[in-house]
Design brief:
The complex is a heterotrimer of chains A (about 280), B (about 290) and C (about 230).
Chain A (H helix, E strand, L loop, with lengths): L27 E12 L2 E12 L3 E5 L6 H8 L9 E9 L2 E2 L7 H7 E4 L10 H11 L6 H11 L3 H4 L12 H13 L5 E5 L7 H14 L4 E5 L3 H7 L2 E10 L2 E11 H6 L4 H7 L5
Parallel strand pairs in A: 3-8, 3-9, 6-7, 7-8
Antiparallel strand pairs in A: 1-2, 1-4, 4-5, 9-10
Helix pairs in contact in A: 3-4, 3-6, 4-6, 6-7
Chain B lengths: L13 H39 L5 H5 L13 H32 L2 H15 L3 H13 L6 H26 L2 H9 L4 H29 L3 H6 L18 H10 L3 H36 L2
Helix pairs in contact in B: 1-11, 3-6, 3-8, 4-6, 5-6, 6-8, 7-8, 8-11, 10-11
Chain C lengths: L4 H34 L2 H32 L3 H33 L7 H27 L2 H28 L6 H33 L16
Classes of the chains: A alpha/beta (about 280), B mainly alpha (about 290), C mainly alpha (about 230).
Chain lengths: ~280, ~290, ~230
Amino acid sequence: MSEMVTMRPMRPVDVAAPREAESQTRETVFDIHALQASYGSNIAIKDVDLEIYRNLITAVIGPSGCGKSTFIRCLNRMNDEVPSFRHEGEILYHGVDLYGDGVEPVEVRRRIGMVFQKANPFPKTIYDNVAWAPRVLGLKKDLDDRVEKALQSAALWDEVKDRLKRSALSLSGGQQQRLCIARAIAIEPEVLLLDEPASALDPIATQRIEELMRELKRDYTIVIVTHNMQQAARVADRTAFFSLDAGESGRHGVLVEYDETPKIFTAPSDKRTEDYVTGRFG
Amino acid sequence: MAAVEPPLTLRGDARVRRRRIVNRLAEAGATIAALAAVAVLGIVVWSIAKRGGSELSWGFLTKDLPLFGQPGGGIAPLLVGSALLVGIATAIALPVGVLIAVFLEEFASPAVRAPIQLSVDLLNGLPSIIIGVFVFGLLVYGHPQNGWAGSVGLAIVMLPLVTRATQEVLRLVPSSHREGALALGASRWRTVLGITLPSAFGGILTGTVLAVARAAGETAPLLFATSIFGRTINWNPGQALPNLPVQIFIWSESAEPEDHKRAWASALVLLIFVLVTSLTARLALARSRRKLNR
Amino acid sequence: MGVRVTFQQELDQLEASLQEEGALVLRVLRGALNALGQRDVELADEVIAFDDDVDRRYLQIEEGIQYLLALQTPVAIDLRLVLAILHTNLHLERMADYSVTIAKLTKLVANVEPDPLLLQSLQDMGERAEEMIRVALDAFANRDLEAAESLVDLDELIDRSNRRFVDRVLEIVGEPGLREWVLRMVLVSRTIERIGDHAVDIGEQVAYLLTAEFREFTDASHRGQSD
């Protein structure tokens, strides 16, 4: 006896929808226009225009020397520490020019934190590493809670909760890097800039940092510089590809393409991008 | 068939042999020179110890200075006075020296840095007698002798030593630590106070101890400022303070053989102090260097 | 926290979607067989419309595979799984298309009174095909190599039903009113056979996934000649 089967159309359950179209409804955090950065007479990057959106992971990729680090260091004014640094164009952070009159680099860096390529914990205890900046910036209330929350967000709490008074230098490389992330989170920034955060780590530690980033993007806006394309492919919602351009004043970095990551890695618009991600770029 | 080559012996020719002999001679010469330096130090220590060792005793270290021409007595006032003088000098030289070093390493632009660095280096090479004359002219002339002036003189001697040592240790602090602190929104000064200086603390301490060891034996600045003093322990730097180096000089000039013996003994005390502090300081410096580089 | 959790989730989602597509295909086939057996033109139209859903799902899975390959660079068993999903996706889509073919053929001769025996053998073949699809999907889900290899034997059952079908065709092919109907039914039987072939292909993909070797399953005609 055959069953009566009706052919009502079913709504298909979402296949792995890859990070699509999130940026269209997102708030803009950084609005960058015609940015040019130079050290003395060397132009490092030129004509950079892009917007960075909230609660997304934006990756910056490109060959060595294309200005990725210079670019990201403009976003929290770390380049100010280099005496010969000059810039043109503007970087608007929620509409405010980062380099405007009266803008204090210290205030900028409280809201826009940075984690460096090689973990650089202070030669202090684990607790003090996380607690130092809040203390210095006047966030002294409930310091223990703040430290614990930061270490938990960095997925390090369980591993160190019994040895907060031990030296930070006793941790492994991956743990130290997570400590640096906790340290940056402790002052409650809005943005986290990660300059090749996993390049000095082994693959397992790298994976953990990547998983951590995915969790963190719920609360923070993340910009990551990486020379590892596959990392950008795995982790980033949007990817910006910088490359070198030869101009009259020498070689400088330019923004070639900036789009949703799936598009960059399946059908990039610019041939230079395609050459780079397929590995045909010299 | 090619011509047969002579078999390899790897023995070398006359030129190689000559070079080997020259190498050996040079090595020997360097070793002898090094041994000579050690020998000189050994001779100095030995001869002072021999001549002054007999006079050393607990009483010698705790009694007041002997009355003129009398036997016995001790150097307690000298020890107290020297300690005071050096102590006050350190209190002046340490903060100023560290601040200068911090300024040079952390804040100065290259244009400002060069002349100030040069001044510090020149100060380092200034003969102590000139410092003494300067202190005399500025602080003593027209006033009675006093400990303050002597301390200032010693402080000038100590200043470049503290500055140099601090600079060296500040340079050893990895710039990644500074970067990390700045990236957290700390100001330059907060970074120096909270991160850079604490890391450099060990080295600064060592540098200070070495400066103290040096200042303890400086005679010229004290000759003009605090050379006429009493027999008993004096805690007041407003007056001339008794001190070891000047008293050693005075006793060595005396006709009394007793005084000569006292001079040797005092010299031995001074020597032991300088050697022990120098040695400890250098060992501590090596340890703190290793810690920073981990 | 394990490593590559998100990647594993995306992989699992892709496979779950594939299984859902398989369920859709079974419904489509069942619908087509029912329409055939009951001469239900409305049902046949529904089947044809429903194929669009399957096609949508097919494209989604294709896109998912593209992104997974580009963004996650899977290797080893992950890569074989993605490739197996890629091929199986195709086979499922083809099976749905064949079901549509059956529905269309049904519509063409719906007004003809069918021969019950012939119809029965077609229903038997259809049920065999359904079973093969189920076995193939289960073998994939459970990573069951034996079940995958058993598909060859099940294909043999379709062959037997087909032989009965051919016998009956030869018996009734002379009757005048039935000639067009019989022609269409012969096409239906071919279509069902092809559905069975695709199910065997899915079994081969399962074997590839598990053994990293791609080999064609030996069918009844080649038994005894392999290795």
